[in-house]
Amino acid sequence: MQAMTPDRVVVLAADDGAACVAMSQAARDMDTTITCISVDPRQEEATAEPGARGQTGAVSGDIGKHRDSNDLKARPLSEALAGTAEESVDILYLDGRDPAADLAAVFAPWRPRLSPTGVVLVHGTEATSGPTAARRFLDEISDGRACANFHHGQGLGVVLWGEKTAPKTAPTLAEFADLLTDARTRALVTGYFSAESAKLDAQREAQALAVRLNAALEDLHNARPETLPDIDKLQTIYDDFAKQVSELRDAAQASIKLLGKPVRSYLVARLARGVAKLPALSERRREKFLRSANKRDPKRAARLLSERLQGLQADLPPISLTATRFWGQDLDAVELEMVEHTQPVDIIVCVHNALDDVRACLSSIVAKTVPPYRLIIVDDGSGDETRQYLQDFALAQSATLLRNEVAGGYTRAANAGLKASDAPWAILLNSDVIVPFGWLDEMLKIGNSDARIGIVGPSSNTASWQSVPDLFLADGDWSDNPLPDGVSVDDMQRIVTRLAPRQGIDLPFLNGFAYMIRREVIDDIGIFDEEVFGAGYGEENDYCIRARDAGWKLVFAPNAYVFHAQSKSYSTERRLKLAQAADQNLQRKHDPDTKILPQVTWCRWNLAAAALRARVAVQMEDREKIARFTRTYTSKRVAFILPASQAGGGSNIVMQEASLLSDMGVDTWILNLKQNRQKFERNYRDARPTVLYFEDPREITSFLGANPLDFDAVVATAHFTVDWLPDAFENTAPRLGYYIQDFEADFYKKDDKNHAAALATYRKLDRIAGFTKTNWNADAVARVGTARPQVIGASVNLEDFRPKGRNVGSGAKIIVVAMVRFDANVKRRAPELTIRVLNRLARSYRDRVEVRIFGCNDEKRLKPLVDESIVNVGVLPPGDVAGLLRNADIFLDFSVWQAMGLSAMEAMACGCAVVVPENGGTTDFCRHEKNALVIDTGDEETCYAAAARLVEDATLRSELSRNATTDICAFTQERAAMRMVEALFEEPA
After folding, report:
1. pLDDT in tens, 477-504
2. In whole angstroms, what is the distance from residue 844 CA to residue 947 CA?
3. In which order are the strands placed within the sheet that holds 156-160?
4. How would you list the strands of the sheet with 425-430, edge to edge?
5. Which of 21, 515, 544, 552 could form a disulfide with 428 if both were Cys (CB 3.0 to 4.6 A apart)?
6. How far apart are CA 741 and CA 531, in angstroms?
7. Residue 92: which residues within 8 A CB-CB, separation 6 or more?
8. What would you measure as the largest C-alpha separation in the chain, in angstroms?
9. Vertex 732 angle, CA 728 and 738, to 5°
């Protein structure tokens, strides 16, 4: 691949698509784009049966994972041949697992399509089992052409087919062939590629490994220290990681012996990149291994790689319960990928008249549900019209239809469906629901993430505690949350999928309108209680209690949305009577004080569910505003001057808001310096704005002065970048903006020249549109004698920062978190005062509180100051900060001032009770004793008293946490980003 730099590759692979993925990865490593066509040679129009797939399922599945690396397509044979010109294919790959006759027949139509520099690859030439068709085929087509057979794995034959191929490629091919004649070398390379294959398999198992790890952590949390029967689970996972490090180290040491061969540099680079993907590496170590991969000198690269692997292994301490920190381990930090399910599922719909609802329900299931599934319909004594419709529908859709001639009630009908079910999951759906595309896969994603999850329920418009965005109406009744005009069920699915916790939400009661039950639960506790709840209503609450008592977990999957129309099967009056009777029966069967009331309170005040509802409410409120904004500004081109390398508070805000603007149609650009490129791109891999890099600030100024890209607006994001804005423009001048994220003059002492420079930039607001986050910051700028900047509003990343939905630990201690950071000039974060208060808190409440700090890696500086019981987790990337805050109860910020207070906002979004300084912008989103404690942080005794008050007063702590979680959802980044653009382009008064 490196020698040829092909334009077109054709992969003839009928089975698993691994070759297509390999070509994709090779193209990505070469930093080029190829057209890689995966073809099923057995799929010809003449032999295809009716309904045959247009492309191979397994191949297309792997293709989906690598679309970002090249123009990867899967096509049937006839289509691929028709769309491929003669002499256009540079690499043709054949799967040697097919019989020899088939190989020759499949190859024949592709011969004229091979280019003058074409190469033929034949896989399976060294297979030790089955026919040796690939080797015979290789011998036949290589007659008179340069050829080599690589003796590794199942073998790979290479034939230099085109007449122009040999002069260009034969030397490289000869070197590789010579390299592999040595048995020891061949063994190493074979082992290397075997390891690469194992790595691909390991990536597929990564999600399962994460689930195992978190299951082990949960078991450890729930076990007593003296009896830890499941400690071996965590030990095994840890040992697997240590073993990987050891094997990689040995491979690196062995690889040094192959220096000077052309394969060496490539293998070392790939090995180093593989190491960088290992779990549990710090960012600093990850960067080092990536640097090893980029070394041009293979000898030096191999030596560095070996040394760094040795160092990594030396740093791995023996694991033990006392040495293990669980501060960052919560289930919500684990990403779950939604993939189309492959296991069978039984969907059970119980019907009693209400034909219009039934039609809509069954039609949506058929149209929006991805197979495999079996539809089981239970007709509970419906009238003739509904009966006939169900018979016709079941016949047309191959559904299983059960019929009760006399209506026996929902519970009996549901049990009949459950008895007929034999799939790993059975889903009971009311006949008055409408499902969107993806609903089933999203529910299964949650259910299959943990083997102890027994029952799963989705979000809905009206489903008691699972309702979004509102729980109750003004009169206290359950809200029905009708969909606004222009919002479909599929729209709601997209909204909740983006906003929901990754692993769902633990709820002790789940509504029965869409009730997914694991087969093992039915085998364990049986089906619904017909004797007590035969008429319907209450049977699912009873089942929830029985499942909990048997040790099963119940999880609300808000990432799935199912619309509930409130069926006409029962009148409102009859429904109320049935519900009241069911509540009485439930309380007679189960002790309300232990099995019902505490769990109802949990459902009502669950932070993760409340945060989700608030987030959905904001999205619904803003949908028309966003649509208008997009229509107005979709053609605008805006550049941000952001000379950043590391991911940090201010840079994160700019990048996140610029990305959101890009999503809303604004063409956003980032202007950065070349010296920052490597770190910037590593920290912002998923950046959506286009990034341009310049040698120095003068080049940026010159570029903007010419304005060759016709920017409509240019925004400075720090005080020194204001001076990079041109004084004049050669062509159309863009609007100029200054994003003032803090009162930067006070970052420096008054005799520092930077203090005066920052003040000077504020005085340029007569010709530059200034905007800032908070009223405090706007007032601080205005006081220096300039125009008051517009306030676009405080904002926080609500997608990453949110309360945890699933519980890992028992939460025996109150977790207190604070940032400790030593600023270079003015110590506005008050690190010494913060440490003194934390030390006092840790010593006063040693048995009740655990204190954790972050933001500083300087252990030498911290160790003499910090109490030994305080845990320092150092400088964390944003994802780990979210995990830290999600597992905390209290967040303390004793800064001298905070222009906005981003960390406090992130803590509030994660469900913490917070203490913030009254001096600064926090008062824009904090209300004292409502959603935070807002105090004079200049007084140390006041700081300690506020912290101690939150530790002592659980009621206050819970109230602040609940209010903070919902209040902070109004401060979205979308709102701030839209106000910013409006401030840039509004006409002067």
Report:
1. 889 999 998 899 999 999 999 889 888 9
2. 11
3. 71-76, 35-40, 8-12, 89-95, 114-123, 156-160, 147-150
4. 400-404, 374-380, 345-351, 425-430, 514-518, 453-459, 553-561, 505-506
5. 515
6. 65
7. 9, 10, 12, 107, 110, 113, 114, 118, 119, 120, 121, 161
8. 92
9. 60
**Taking the CB of residue 182, how many other CB atoms lie within 10 A of it?**
13
3-state secondary structure of 33: coil
> CA 854, 680, 797, 882 torsion: positive or negative?
negative
Write the CA distances from 172 to 80, 122, 156, 445, integer angstroms: 30, 18, 15, 47
The beta strand positions in 301-354, using DSSP E, are 345-351
First to last CA, the chain: 62
Residue 731: CB atoms within 10 A of its CB come to: 10
Question: Exposed, middle or buried by CB within 10 Å (0-12, 13-18, 19+), for 704?
Answer: buried
- Rounded distance between C-alpha atoms, residue 178 and residue 840, angstroms: 70
What would the pLDDT profile of 434-449 be if each residue is shown by its tens digit? 999 999 999 999 999 8
723: Cα within 13 Å, side-chain hemisphere: 11
Burial track 943-972 (b if 16+ CB lie within 10 A, e otherwise): bbebbbebbeeeeebebbbbbbbbbbbbbb
Say which residues have a Cβ less than 8 Å from residue 545's Cβ, sequence separation at least 6.
590, 595, 596
Residues 6 or more apart whose CB falls under 8 angstroms from that of 348 comprise 376, 377, 378, 414, 417, 418, 420, 421, 426, 427, 428, 429
Query: Distance between CA atoms of 722 and 726, rounded to whole angstroms?
Result: 9
- Give the pLDDT confidence of 872-928 residue by residue, as tens digits: 888 887 778 888 999 999 999 999 988 899 999 999 999 999 999 999 999 999 999
Please spell the DSSP secondary structure of 227-275, one letter per residue.
B-TTHHHHHHHHHHHHHHHHHHHHHHHHHGGGTTSTHHHHHHHHHHHHH
Q: Which residues are bridge partners to 932 per DSSP?
A: 928
Dist. CA 779–CA 633, nearest whole Å: 29
- For residue 22, give the 3-state DSSP assignment: helix
> Is the pTM for the entire model greater than 0.85?
no
Please tell me the chain's helix, strand, coil percentages from 3-state DSSP, rounded to the nearest 5. 45, 15, 35
Question: Do 804 and 778 touch, CB atoms closer than 8 A?
Answer: no
β-sheet bridge partners, residue 671: 641, 692
pLDDT of 252 > 70? The answer is no
Q: Return all residues near 186 (Cβ < 8 A) that are at least 6 apart.
A: 151, 152, 180
Contacts made by residues 390-395, CB under 8 angstroms, sequence distance 24+: 390/351, 390/358, 393/362
Residue with tokens 């517009």: 790
Type of residue numbered 92 = L
Q: For residue 153, list its beta bridge partners.
A: none
- Contact assessment for residue 704 and residue 726, using Cβ atoms and an 8 Å cutoff: yes
What gap in Å lies between CA 495 and CA 551, rounded to an integer?
32
The identity of residue 219, as a single letter, is D
Looking at residue 813, its amino acid is K
Q: How far apart are CA 549 and CA 720, in angstroms?
A: 63
Which residues are 693's β-sheet partners?
672
